[in-house]
Write a structure and sequence with these properties.
- The complex is a heterodimer of chains A (256) and B (289).
- By secondary structure, chain A is α/β, with parallel strands linked by helices.
- Chain A has nine helices and ten strands.
- Helices cover 37% and strands 23% of the residues of chain A.
- A six-stranded mixed beta sheet of chain A has the order 6-7-8-3-9-10, sandwiched between helices. In chain A, strands 2-1-4-5 form a four-stranded antiparallel beta sheet, with helices on one face.
- The N terminus of chain A is likely disordered.
- By secondary structure, chain B is mainly α.
- Among the domains of chain B are: 30 residues; 152 residues, MetI-like (MetI-like fold, Orthogonal Bundle), CATH 1.10.3720.10.
- Chain B contains ten helices and no strands.
- The chains are: A alpha/beta (256), B mainly alpha (289).
- Chains A and B meet through α1, α2, α3 and α5 of A and α7 and α8 of B.
């Protein structure tokens, strides 16, 4: 990558003063977030705090009302950049997997490369095959999504997001829809990606995991980011009263 | 925002459990006997009622003249072949136009407003005009304009009218299929970099079409009978042939010949549709377990 003069300090992804409302309801209220290359940022906060919406806005799945989103310093939400090509550079994995039920696992994973990037089928399948092997899913390549467990489906969804070699990976509460015993396999996949230097923003309710894997944790409340600091500080010594309340509820629920 | 309810591709669809085959088989023999006996009794009563009605001998001669049946058979059969051809053309053209309309209606964004509006207007008009009127208007109206290059064949315009009307209804079926695909499928297709068109083509439509096959097949059954409406243009299909014969002989037996042909064609079709629909439902309920 050819960096400009200020390249070293420029964040990979930055969200600047982003506002988003659904009708009268303000979902994102003046959000600022900068993510460095190879950094892992966890978004925590109650349901309805705006975590998912923020991720969807970053991937241009929902339009923002105000503010800017920059990828490598370029404004991707301005309409001057082709949003389809932006989405190819950012991967997202959803809470409920959202695999294509009418396609085999291999086709689910290769659809993006083949249609969006125009890679020939053989090459796309080779690439997808290697990725599925890495995630321990090779034996399922010819199956349909409903023949797989939730954890396997979620790992396929991760493979589908990774196969186009995105520069940033967004994960939206990807273990929330899983049975407890299936959470581990998905989290260990994410940990490997983090160790491999993938730039990630993940919304999660798994506080223990967030503490392990995140470089920084951002606490969202009612559409605002109240604090963004290293996990030890946010989780052990939160400065905000709202953060303390939230963490207390999490602890009471036995999740930390 | 989390998207509740789409955890499983078929979540939210309420499907009845498949019947318990074991119980079915035990009751099978006794059930078949009862069903058989009650059917025989039922038919006997109906038959007795008809045969003892005072006008039966007259009706028998008017509708069931065996000699006339044999005589009218070749002409009516020839006419029915025309019906089958019109049906075949319709069954190819209708889904294509309907899909086009449904896709036009489901395109998003203000830029596509004119396309959406045109599709809606077309569908509204086609659903608002009685089919027989549409056939008359196109079949007599357009050839009368004598526009060079346009076909003047009544069959052509009859099939066109059927296609226009049926595709409006079928477009609504397809659209409900498109709407039945969860929004999250669209998000996930867009997120891997597909364009709006590719999203529709590879992610949404394959699922939408699968969802509406049973509903569409019902339309096919009804088209198979409605092709007879083209007879109003004088096209010599089965009903028209029967009409000609009955006008000549003052006897309605030829209509019975036509009825038998339509039934011979549509009953297997209806059975097939039922079988397919049931199989589809069972398959889905198994997936949902």
């Amino acid at each position: 990558m050819s960096d400009g003069g200020e390249g070293a300090s420029r964040p990979k992804l930055s969200v600047e003063s982003v506002c988003k409302r659904f009708g009268d309801r303000v979902v994102l209220n003046d959000i600022d977030l900068a993510v460095a290359e190879h950094e892992v940022v966890c978004l925590i906060g109650g349901s309805g705090s705006g975590k998912s919406t923020l991720l969807r806005c970053i991937d241009l799945l929902d339009p923002i009302d105000r503010g800017r989103i920059l990828l490598d310093g370029a404004d991707i939400g301005s309409g001057q950049v082709n949003s389809n090509s932006v989405r190819r550079r950012i991967g997202i994995v959803f809470q409920s997997f959202n695999l294509f039920p009418h396609m085999r696992i291999m086709d689910n994973v290769t659809l993006g490369p083949r249609k969006a990037l125009g890679i020939p089928r053989a090459e796309a399948e080779e690439r997808a095959g290697a990725l599925l092997a890495r995630l321990g899913l090779s034996e399922h390549a010819r199956k349909y999504p409903d023949q797989l467990s939730g954890g396997q489906q979620q790992r396929v969804a991760i493979a589908r997001a990774l196969v186009s070699e995105p520069e940033v990976l967004l994960l939206d509460e990807i273990t929330s829809a899983l049975d407890p015993e299936l959470v581990g396999e998905v989290l260990s996949t994410i940990r490997e990606l983090a160790d491999g230097g993938m730039t990630m923003v993940l919304a999660t309710h798994e506080m223990g995991f967030a503490r392990d894997v995140a470089h920084r944790i951002a606490f969202l409340d009612a559409g605002r980011i109240l604090e963004t600091r290293p996990p030890g500080q946010v989780l052990s010594a939160p400065t905000e009263a709202r953060t303390r309340q939230f963490l207390q509820r999490v602890i009471d629920a036995g999740r930390l | 925002m989390a998207e509740p309810g789409w955890g499983h591709p078929d979540a939210g669809e309420v499907t009845p459990a498949p019947p318990d085959r074991g119980v079915h088989r035990e009751e099978g023999v006794r059930g078949a006997l009862i069903a058989g006996a009650s059917t025989v009794v039922f038919l006997a009563v109906i038959g007795w009622l008809i045969l003892r009605s005072p006008n039966w001998p007259k009706v028998r001669d008017q509708f069931f003249d065996l000699e006339l049946l044999a005589d009218s058979w070749p002409a009516v059969l020839r006419g029915f072949w025309v019906d089958v051809q019109m049906f075949a053309w319709g069954i190819v053209a209708i889904p294509m136009l309907a899909l086009l309309l449904a896709v036009a209606r489901s395109f998003r964004g203000p830029a596509f407003f004119p396309i959406r509006a045109l599709a809606v207007i077309f569908i509204d008009i086609m659903r608002g005009v009685p089919l027989v009127l549409l056939i008359l208007l196109l079949g007599f109206g357009i050839p009368a304009l004598q526009i060079p290059g346009l076909p003047t064949s009544a069959i052509f315009w009859g099939v066109t009218a059927l296609t226009l009307s049926y595709s409006a209804y079928t477009a609504e079926i397809f659209r409900s299929g498109i709407d039945s695909v969860p929004e999250s499928q669209r998000s996930s297709a867009r997120s891997i970099g597909l364009t709006q068109w590719q999203t529709l083509r590879f992610a949404i439509l394959p699922q939408a079409i699968r969802n509406v096959v049973p509903a569409f097949m019902n339309t096919v059954v009804s088209l198979q009978k409605d092709v007879a409406l083209v007879s109003v243009l004088g096209v010599r299909e089965a009903v028209r042939e029967a009409q000609i014969i009955s006008a000549r002989t003052f006897n309605y037996t030829a209509y019975i010949a036509a009825t038998r042909l339509f039934l011979a064609f549509s009953i297997p079709l209806v059975r097939f549709v039922d079988w397919y629909t049931r199989r589809d439902r069972v398959r889905r309920s198994q997936v949902a377990v």
